[in-house]
Write a structure and sequence with these properties.
The chain is built from 6 helices and 12 strands. The protein has 3 domains: 2-33, no CATH class; 51-113, no CATH class; 115-183, no CATH class. 26% of the residues lie in helices and 26% in strands.
Length: 189
């Protein structure tokens, strides 16, 4: 078979083998049975679900888009049922209709105070993991995780000492934050 595929394309071989099978139905009578080739066609590729650009989405992967609710601070993934509000041409996602209503009443207050995490490497439910821009350690976000805001972005740190180094020269670390890869050691606060 391997020798035949050198000289004939696979489709031609398939046609040769399936053109006809001859079976003896009686002593002198031959019956020719034609068999149609069965080529399995794969299902057409489903286009990936694309979500509009939401102002509070901070991370996207194969599973979807993840947001931080600007009112209550909870993390969630965008679904068809996610409440959405539009303010000043930007769309925001919420974890509940109550948060959406509260946001619509005082949107400027929540927009001004809502800063999204940077350097996110994974999201699983409410568990968000980021990379420390100073020492490249992985950090699981918790309420007590040290952070600094710089140029409308929030940087999280594995220790207070990293936050102090960042504070001395935030521009250097925010630039390096884009260049460094996370260390393999996992450090949680």
């Amino acid at each position: 078979m391997k020798q035949l595929t050198k000289y004939f394309p696979a489709r031609a071989l398939l046609a040769l083998f399936t053109i006809a099978f001859i079976t003896a139905s009686s002593e002198a009578q031959l019956k020719v049975t034609s068999v149609k080739p069965t080529v399995k066609k794969s299902a057409p590729a489903q286009p990936a679900k694309t979500w509009p650009a939401y102002a509070n989405v901070f991370y996207r992967n194969k599973e979807g888009a993840f947001y931080k609710d600007p009112v209550c601070g909870m993390y969630g993934s965008v679904t068809e049922a996610t409440p959405i509000s539009e303010v000043a041409g930007k769309s925001y996602c919420f974890d509940s209709d109550a948060c959406k209503k509260k946001f619509e009443q005082e949107s400027q207050k929540y927009i001004a105070t809502s800063i999204l995490p940077t350097r996110v490497i994974s999201v699983e439910g409410q568990k968000v993991t980021v990379v420390d821009p100073v020492n490249s350690a992985r950090v699981e976000l918790k309420k007590e995780t040290p952070f600094k805001d710089y140029m409308s972005k929030r940087y999280y740190f594995s220790a207070d000492s990293s936050a102090k180094l960042f504070e001395k020269n935030p521009h250097q670390y925010s630039i390096n934050a884009k260049l460094k890869k996370p260390n393999s050691t996992k450090r949680e606060n």
